[in-house]
Amino acid sequence: MSWLTKTLTSSIGKKVLMALTGLFLCTFLVVHLSGNFQLFKNDGGYAFNTYAVFMTTFPVIKVISYGNYFFILFHAFWGLYITYKNKQARPVGYAVTKNQSSPYSRNMAILGTILLVYIVVHMSDFWYKFHYEHLPYVQYTEQLNTGQITHAAMDEGYTQDVKKLETFNEAAGTRIVVVKDLYKVVSYAFQNIGLVLFYVLAMFALAFHLVHGFQSAFQSLGLRHSKYTPLIKGISVWVFGILIPIGYAAMPLYFYFFK
Amino acid sequence: MSNENMTIHLKVWKQKNTGSKGHLEDYTVNNVSPDMSFLEMFDVLNEELIHENKEPIAFDHDCREGICGMCSMYINGRPHGPLEGVTTCQLHMRSFKDGDTIVVEPWRAAAFPVIKDLVVDRTAFDRIIASGGYVSINTGNAQDANNLPIGKERADLAFAAAACIGCGACVAACKNASAMLFVSAKVSQLALLPQGEPERQSRALSMVAQMDAEGFGSCTNTGACSAECPKEISLDNIARLNREFLGASLSKPE
Prior knowledge:
The structure holds two protein chains of two kinds. Chain A is an alpha+beta fold. Helices cover 66% and strands 10% of the residues of chain A. Chain A is elongated. Chain B is an alpha+beta fold. Chain B has eight helices and seven strands, in the order E-E-H-E-E-E-E-E-H-H-H-H-H-H-H. Chain B has a five-stranded mixed β-sheet. Chain B has a two-stranded antiparallel sheet with strand order 6-7. In chain B, strand 1 and strand 2 (23-32) form a beta hairpin. In chain B, helix 3 runs antiparallel to helix 5 (180-191) and helix 5 packs across helix 8. The longest helix of chain B is centred in the last third of the chain and has 16 residues, at 236-251. Chain B starts with 5 loop residues before the first strand and ends with a helix. Classes of the chains: A alpha+beta, B alpha+beta.
């Protein structure tokens, strides 16, 4: 075995891989949330729909997103593998246990499995539809002198070869953009109370997974010191345990109650 | 707290030998003084069992003053019982009430097979120590005091790590039966001091390799080990072990 495989398959190395992929996924969550905040803009989905095109066409982002898919799968299955190995370390359990650790830190694999199911549902709801299904198109008309944007749905059978068709009408002084209306798909999906509840509950799983996971990643990497560990733990609770899950949960709730 | 003697009901793990299947057996101990230690209560029970021509309960013990690390009972779901920072021998019956039922189990880990009843084989720890938990320097005569200057903070950290008595409560408490707290304390006490410096990298690598070979689990950073440790070994040591191991993996000359 080379020194690298030996290191990465040791009990510490296994956790280092979990920590590194986990922290990558944490940064993804921040980027994904900030991008998706455009759903709250009251512009008929212009900002969100053009952002969706940018995220699926810009080469750098495409490379990162393939990395992201890989890291999600790696983190999930490597985590399940470690959990399986850890279970083998105690073949006979206790009759009585009074745990002195937090329930979420002991159940990261269960929380993670809920999140994996959530990711599959989430991607088939939007990512799969955006890439592989026929979506309605929407046309945005921007008045170049005022910057005002109006939108109109295209005919049902309309389709185009490019993801974003941009034309200028110089006589009328307008810029016309035609894109897939993912915003409408999102808005429609979140009229289903079952899906809204599933999304919100999944965010609870996310919150508990990250309250432990974010700070635990630093510990696995050996980054622990009274100088900065309190800050890491604070970020773990307030940013990853509270703000980010609330931000995500706000989206289905917003569409269900206000759209 | 009462000075009256108590009646205690016990459910104790009985297992004939490593290969056999064990079970919880019920016992009742009368006239238990609140001033007895938990082990003394077991002594009283075993005396009675011997008088009744029954088999006494096998359990580990030695110094009975909290420094040898032999006593190893998992009491009501917690290694070394309900108190913080004490071993089973330092736990007294005044921590329980008259009529209580107490469940006593052995440490549970693949790497700690049960020898009999509450006695487990902890030689896995010895093998980890033998793989690198020492300083192989010919020390010669005793040196003059203060020959090797060591800062107070460092000395304190090394001392706190060296307080580990190797009882295995960390393994017993951990949901993964991980030995990380033990190994991290043993690596830390030497890594922090100049005497440990020459073998610092090989020590971290060998001890982790031996820990894995023994079948202990990985660390999930739940903190249960440190919470249950009778010597209150800090999780800082686990972070240090991670650093020592990763640093050695990346930089040790071949």
